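Protein details
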Amino acid sequence: KVPAAVKGRPEQGLRPSEGAGADPARGAKPDAAESPPAEGAARSAAGSGGSPDARAEVKGYIARLESLDPEDAEEAFRELWEAPRAIIPGLILEVENPAPSTFTELKVLVIDKEHFARLRSIGLAPTGEPIAHEDSTGRFVYDIPGMGSLDYEEIATGPARGGTGLRVVLRRRAVELGEPVPTFPVGAVVRAALVNRFRSSDYPPGDHRTDLVRWWQAFYERARPRL
């Protein structure tokens, strides 16, 4: 059972900082050279960020996510939960955008409830396998595929509407009294929006923390017929 609200520092994946609503719910591909012409064209468009019109629309959304108007930025974030498929390739190219935003809270839909949280591994069995010991401090390891590694101070969870998964809220908080509240980078906001848009646990192989753009492009290829 995932606790309603926990603070901690996972070993990998979502990474709380040191010191520390709305509900979004609702096999390997062949190489491009071996793909049918239509699929090869779609692959090329995905890698370039889509058509000129799609790239322009993405640019507009990024500008809104960077906006100093929190209400407009939040509205853009929610709109991306239902983003047209045509602009998804362009959004994927923004998943590592380091520009600051005004977001101190991200709402994310987690479909894969079973692998979302586990107790921190603090030892090895005689076989060399990691083992998780009961930990009274509530230190958990969290992972939301597609979110990569990012800092946060608080995490809260609850059931998503319709029982389709978990509603997870990541929050930034000032570590020291009087310090400004840190915010999430635009890339993290885009990643959260894409997780909510895809609503799928049919993840591609590989570690989403090592190369976010390539991981999301592979995820898009798998999920594209259903988007």
Remarks:
- Residues 28 and 106 are 31 Å apart (CA to CA).
